[in-house]
Amino acid sequence: MKSRQQKAQFASVLGIFANLILAVIKGIAGVVGNSKALVADAFHSASDVVSSIAVLVGIRAAQKPPDPEHPYGHGKAENIATLIVSILLVVVGVEILLDAVSSLFSPEPSETSAIALYVIIFSIIVKEALFQYKKRLGDKINSPAIVADAWHHRSDAISSVIALAGIGLTMLGSRYDLPFLQYFDPLAGAIIAVLVMWMGFKIGKDAVSVTLETVLDDGRTEKFGLTTEKVEGVKRIDLLNARTHGSYVIIDVKISVDPHITVDEGHSIAARVKEKLIEEHTEVHDVYVHVNPYH
Ligand SMILES: [Zn+2]
After folding, report:
1. pLDDT per residue over 129-180, tens digit each?
2. 19: domain CATH number?
3. For residue 255, how far is its CA from the centre of ligand 1 (angstroms)?
4. Structural domain span for residue 280
């Protein structure tokens, strides 16, 4: 029986390989078959490969233990990797958009060959299969990251469906001599380019807000309060703040305890609060507990 982590790792490596193969096949077929939409979709898959690798590298860096120069650990390495990828996506998006738009205004409408059609159908099938597989696995091992990854594959499938519509209409246009239909292939390419840029903008925004140490709102800190309350010896929570540091959470909590107990006892209550919070919430990486006398 493979462990949860091994399954998760297998799923992400499988996703990277599938995207790599799709990027190469779609890139070649897009150029050979003269389809802007397919080339744009190939770039989309290629940027997915780069972003997945950056996340893996970032996670590895984030796991490095704290050192004297980085006493809070390396959690933010992950966000920096993500930020670089997001800038890359926007740049790639602009490039393919300009290319597609210039084809839209060219006097010669494009002629797309059947190979583009076969390849894009293959891409849709692969992406939908990956969505189904990862969605099931993510639900089974209770991994929000894999479920999110699954939905990314579904959105990739939709991107490929847009390319299919463009390629299909363009081919119909050349078969039935309706030249205006032949502009749908570069149009689909332009739409996919905008999707890629949007993806870059969105993950960049998330990375920035996490990098700027977001303090979590009440809704997301409530569960930490419940855990703290349950610890024996805690009379009252005076203050509880949680902030993100990279992908993990750091909690600052002030508790009130019986004023007549010893310092030693007060200290063990604080230690139990820290232990419980880290044990019950996997995202919690560190806890700072301040002890007040209860009056
Ligand atoms: Zn994608």
Report:
1. 999 998 898 888 877 777 777 888 888 898 899 999 989 998 888 888 887 8
2. 1.20.1510.10
3. 46
4. 218-293
